[in-house]
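FW: tagging you since you asked about this chain on Friday. Here's the raw sequence from the shared folder, copied in full. Didn't touch anything.
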Amino acid sequence: MDEEGRATLLLLVVVVLGSCVAGAWDVSEHLGTRTPYPAAAAPPPAPAGCKLLHVNAVYRHGARYPTAASCSNFTALQGFLAYGQHVLPGYEWILQWESPYNDVVEGLLCGRGQLELYGLGSRFSKSYISPTNIGATANQLIMQCTYKPRTGQSGVSFSLGMMQNMGDLTSCGLPAFSLYSETKKYDKTLRFWDACDRYQQQVQRTNAGSVQANKYAAAHLPVVVTTVEKKTGLTNLNINLVSTMFDLCRYDVVIYNTTSRWCSLFSPSDVEVFEVIEDLNKYYAHGYGIPIAYQDATNLLQEIVAIMEDVAYDRTESDYHDDVAKLRFAHAETVLPLLALLGLYKDPFVLSANTPTQQLAQRVRTKTNRGVPLPGCRCGELRQ
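HL: got it, structure written out here
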């Protein structure tokens, strides 16, 4: 193919897999970054006559167990509930509750998360890797994760679904495969916020990313505290304790697929308060609110484009020339800045703690439950 012909390649198509379906209000669809991945959706049909050459994707890890910080909060809540509390009929279970979480599995994928990524890998294989599409061997699939074990587990689960019948191992015909990662301070493509000095100075060390979220929380969470106390009969609750209860609600959905326990304490308006708080936090910490909070994803975007150009222009000297897919398994904090850098998921107004309630209710694109569900994917296709 000559240079002019190669230039007509469809270089980068952003594909959003999954969408939120309108219907009756369901708390499981309003859990911010803990919102479960929507029902499986097939990729949009390819343009007629376009041959698939390469796929470049960024996945967020799957559903996981709470981190050590959350486990500590749950233990503190359990201690609070154990002494001198009384509840109204129907909420006796609260006083009997014991935290099921511990540091042994903190932050690791739960069973649901493993199945999510396995399913994504299986669907990826059918959509892209099958002989009728791009075709590939295991050595042509380059996979990267971060130093966090849950991203490696996500990559492995995905690969088990994607690579069946591609090798000779086990009854499923799996090949040997590998993932690679960089150390925390040198990972400039998947954990760029850790490796970016400007981000650390302007956002991380100054807590600039949480200013608006904290301001909104101080104004609105006391009402939620009062509501939960009236509903349950509990007394002396505070913002931290009620926020921990909502965190437990989120993990009830993610891990146990139930909304009948901690989620039952919160009305839709209560849940909206927590949604706004997290959306504000992500908007400023890893989104449009502070320029460096999304500009730090530049290395990732440059790598994606460079790989696709190497394949498109048949640059035989490139390390990626023969690769048919580059698959990355990372975090919400990886995906959100990339979306902002591409100008995606941006509402026509700036989010802040002072944004009018009616306008906040109209935000669609900056809602984290849409941009980074568990697990979630952003996929670029190179077609000729």
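FW: The CA atoms of residues 147 and 184 lie 6 Å apart.
HL: agreed, and DSSP finds 15 helices and five strands in the chain.
FW: great, closing this out.
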